Amino acid sequence: MTQKPKPTLTHHQRQEAIKRLNAAKETQGEIARSYDVSRWTIARTFEYRHRVNTRDGLFACLAKLRKGLFVSGFAATEASILPSEITATITLT
To answer: Of 2, 13, 55, 79, which is the most buried if we count CB atoms within 10 A?
Structure first.
């Protein structure tokens, strides 16, 4: 008996799913059902979250890549707004 290939997302669908995940208005399950794939297919898709605080000049991001690798970072327009325990551990250029 021949097994049917598992449904996958096209590049365009992955890009669209990422935008929908980042909008945080739908669950992974809802997005998966719309593409007729499993929730795990969506969960394995690259995820990226960011927040901008324009009042204080802060930007932070967190990315989850395949195989569980996480990348995070932040930026500030002015070092004086950061807590001293953070500024003590970084080099400002």
So the answer is: 13
